Amino acid sequence: MTGFRLVLSALVIGPARRRPIRALLPVVGVAVGVAAVAAIHHANRSITESFREAAREVAGKSDLVVVGARGVPIDAIERLRFLWRIGSFAPLVSGSAVLADGSGEVVSVLGTDYGAEGAVRDMRLVAPTTGAERARLLTSGTVLLPVSFASRHGFRIGSPVPLVAGGVRTRVVVGGLLELSGLARAAGGDVLVTDLFTAGRLLGKTGFVDRVDVVLDPGVSADAVRSEIARRLPAGLSVEPAGRAALAAGRMARAFRFNLNALGSLTLLVGMFLVANAVSISVLRRRPEIATLRSLGTSRASIFTAFAVEGLAVGAAGTLLGEIGGLVLARIALRVVSGTVSSVYAPTAKISAAGFGPPVLAAAVAGGLSSFLAVLFPAVEATRVPPAPAMRPGSTEQVRRHRSGPRAAAAALSLVLAAALSRARPVAGFPFFGFGAVALVVFALALVSPIAVSAGAASTRTAFARFFGPAGRLATAFFGGSLGRNAVAVTALAMALAMTLAMITTVASMRETVRTWVESSLRADLWVRPASGRAGAVVGDLPGEIVPFLQSVSGVEAVDPFRVRDASDASGRALTVGASDFRVLARAGGAPLMDGRDSRKTAEVARRRGEVLVSEPYARRFGASCGDMALLVTPKGLRSFRIAGVYRDFANDRGTILLDRSLYLDLFGDDRLTSAGILARHGVSSEDLRRRIFAAVGGRFAVEVTTNRELRRQVLRIFDRTFAVTRALEGIAVAVAVLGIANALVASAVERRRSFALLRALGASRRQIGSAVLLEALLTGGVATVAAVAAGAAFAALLIGVINPQSFGWSFVPRVPIGRLAAAASAVLLASVAAGLVPGRIAASTDPAAALSEE
Amino acid sequence: MLKQIAALTFAVLLPAPAPSVTFPRDHGAHPEVPVEWWYYTGHLTDRAGASYGFQLTFFRVRDVHLAHFAWTDVSRREFRYEEKTHLGLPGIASAEQERLDVSNEDWFAREGPGGIHVLTASGRAGDLELTLSPVKAPVLHGESGVSRKGAGPREFSRYVSITRLTARGSLRRGIRREPLSGTAWFDHEWGSGVLPAEAAGWDWFALQLDDGSELMLYRMRRSDGSATAFSSGTFVARRGTAVPVRWSEVRLSETKFWSSPHSRARYPAAWRIAVASIGLDVEVEPLLADQELETSASTGVTYWEGACRVKGLHAGRPVGGRAYAELTGYAGKDVPGTAF
Amino acid sequence: MSSPDARAAPSSAPAVVCERVSKVYSGVRPVVALDTVDLAVSSGEFLAIVGPSGGGKSTLLHLVAGIDRPTSGSIRVGGRDIGALPESELTLYRRREVGVVFQFFNLLPHLTVRENVELPRLLDGKKDAYLRARELLDRVDLAERGEAHPYELSGGEMQRAAIARGLVTGARLLLADEPTGNLDSRHGEEVLELLDHVRRERGVTLLLATHSPAAARRADRIVELRDGRFS
User: Fold this and answer.
1) Residue B202 predicted with pLDDT over 70
2) A 254-273 residues with CB below 8 A of B?
3) What is the ipTM of this complex?
4) A191, A265, A363, A804: which sits with the fewest CB atoms below 10 Å from its CB?
């Protein structure tokens, strides 16, 4: 043991004491990698949690939830009466409204059966305090607000709260204040709780509630009760375990989480490379010490163990630092992200850092494992070093020869495999093989990068020497010389940049496809929607009586009352049902059909035959095509419709069944609309018609009227905002990778001390040495960029051709935004040169006498 | 009689009193008025002779339905009560029109075949199931059922009682089922729920004498304890004849007091009631001192409502009996009238 | 050994003059590497500096090479006090006026042998670096090895390449610090032979630090440094 302690102190502790900064480098590497992973995990989880929490607070303590295609009709609640013997139940009406107090904030409106709330959901009044005053709340038609929300807006008991709900301007009175717990925490506390009837009036939901939550007494079997409820419920209603509803709410942000996760794993990979890089450098540097110990008879095992111990220590320290850093990073990331989530995914969702949980195990394991693995290979290699030549100073820079043949072959093989995987079908709606193909491309990239570094160094040698003189020549020599290390840095940066380029291409293709889609499918001249304040999304819906009202406005040629709502198929899979007036579609046309047929004629045929149109994501998700039957649970029971056509749609990824309005009215008995498309009479301008509509609406409805042009712009703005998050994360990945370059170069600068000293002795100026390092950084960035362009093209092809269609059902026309790609690549190149600044300075300031005296 | 429920109401304009009240139609709900309640109290004994009191009340205040169920176990000296509050939704809480059928969760009161009333309520005391058979016809209080509470145009309600029903049924606790029998009283009142401003509370009595007669009496109480001009009562003779009782004929005096350990309120705890016109002079005393309800989860009002014993003279002869008394406005700021 | 001026210089003009040169390495316990040393080396002279390890040989060469600066005293090379030169001029001095051969690590591992030889002249931006390097490689019998990498060379070949590099700029002063320390005697002899030849051939002043008496034998003059002083 004492022998091993000696080895440990000679190999690990001693060098660390002598050069603490060097010893810290790998720790920082691990920390950065772990921090990035932890940050994304934290951010991801707190977003998911925010969605879930909102759903959970609404679901309360319930065991089962009764829901229906068009809510639960009030008459159907009667059938649950038997439950009072074994538990209790509480109906709930929920929706959103816009505060018309100038803030334009969106609030959740929850209508409850106050009395049942105690048993099902948690709700605590802060004021009023006396029993009699509280009792009066029940019948007053007033609303309860969480204290925090009320004080933020200056509302007190008795204050009127101006609202726009369901396209109608109205006002409610604050009757009481709620503690910010339980139900009041739904929607992050921006919630307005009132009795079910008042909420129903506000939201235009009369005759039905959105859900009934069931709580069972202890010991009552939920399964038995569930089947008993199912037996009693009329067609079109279903009963589900409460957890599933919360899950469905989380699905809302599926596309969003998907983005985060994809980039999170990328950052993890880059981070692992970084760690491997930092640790292996630190091992390589101690080859003389290893050789000395080996020549003194130290066993390979104890050298290996010493490095393993170091790897674990580095991993542990780095992980600890990284976990802390991750929390900080996540806070920053969330600030960027929260706006998008609430504007795009759920207008009332509040993202808070409160959801931050315990340390991220995945990040810790990744950090620990990668630093261990990273130390493993160099350590094994170090134990194989024969003692004598390694003792010679300078052997740390021994040029390692890579056999490029087998590498190239393996890379080619994985690319072929990737191509094969890209043809496989998704597994359970998840593009499993698509991601497998991405992983294989990454693998190929890692294999090929040493070859790329050699080739890069060789091919630029002459040119660099010509353009940059001796510094250029030195740069190519250094670049090709530190093959192993530079290959790792190149791989990390190339991966990050490739993913960025691929995302840019994908997003641009998507955007362009969406833009053309918007142009061809938005045929109306104006859209009338409920006033939605600051929210990007539509809040609430419009009453049915607005249709004849709009038709009566002079200059209106036709009105298409459009309705969307959540629905499900026979097996409970969520989808969207839309309703449109097919007569208007037959006249003005609708979204373009995938097979290129005329959408007007198809709409007319579908209307006459009672058929439906489905969106592309529906067709992909349910494997349906033109002529197949689409199944839909309606309040009148399960119905099937023949599919008359498949149209392109980017509005949602769940898939939409589009019904003619008259068919929808008959089945769902719901005459409210999500928006109304308006065709202007020939010769009437949109602006003019908008003025007329506003004049006619007067105080009766609170609506927003959007022109075709504005709506197009809005769609694209929302699109851009969604992907702003992606961009932020790409930035992080690239920053981490550039940091990797800096790390590698700092390590090189430290390691090449003697080379720099020799150069100085031979008359190289500081500037020449500094420039050489900067140019080496440029080379690293350049080779990485070239590799990234190739890998990025592969990634983009997989994203556009495989992953997106398989996971969202969206297909789009590939488009290469040369300008943006070039800008991103140049930014990365610049950043890599910047990454050479510090190592360049370190290299330039090498003291030749001191370094040479080490001989 | 006015109940604490008035605390829950809005003031609204009522149509003029309907010309007539008919049954069983008017045992049903009257949604045209904001406030309505169905009120059962009674005295029961089990096979061993132990005595119990019960109160089961269904309130409707606009769309809100509330219910109270109180159980007095005299021999064990236990008093238990529960309350429920719901919006009027089918299967949750409802009151049908045209017939007696009110429910809140799984508590209900319904009129069955032959004019019987079927009651069900459950609580910590057990599950109570009772069948009540009217002994007398419904009695209309005041002037043909219009019971004035004050001088204001809306300060009245419709008030109907069945002053004596024989009760038969059981209380089930776990697997034990205790058969019960006894006498019950039914009140049904609907109206604006508006109280005169001068009233600070009320004392209400429902006396069932062993000689087959009953007396309903309420004192609308000012804050100084004196009765307003709209305090009154109804005497129902053994054969069912109803005679209005004017307050001027009544002498009501408290003889004992009890302080609640829960609300700190001080309630009268024994009375001497003398009504000269019917030759009645009795003492009324609670069977159990603590029969106070704090209904924070429903009406929000704290009141005392309990089973009492009656002893004294009627028409010169000694008489015993049972009674229910309701005392409101004693528990500090939750005085119902102050809500207006 | 002999005193500093035991042997006469072949030429009268002194190429290097050290006056009262001291070098102290600061630290917790300062080390005096050179203690007020005086030395004059004539142009074209071959001076061997001998003495035990740590005696100050390398320090003296580093000072003369302009790699390090004296703590006190002056070192004049070609009439200029190089210790007082600003950094940029000192760099030019190293680049143009002096060639060095070290015991280890003479060549940059990632450059070819020829490139290593070219390097000082390249750093000076001279266009003829390639031709000069080829010529000198030929001179040191490494013409065939020019495109090899240093790790492919034997120790003797590496030192020959270093000598070629030392001459490539046309410097008049060549410094060699234990150039044979890492070589067996046969290769060591070859290297010394080469050094002696080229300095004669080109009239270069040669300062050789060595602890090998055999190596010193070829010198015009031998001085011994022990504990930072000539003895």
Assistant:
1) yes
2) none
3) 0.89
4) A265
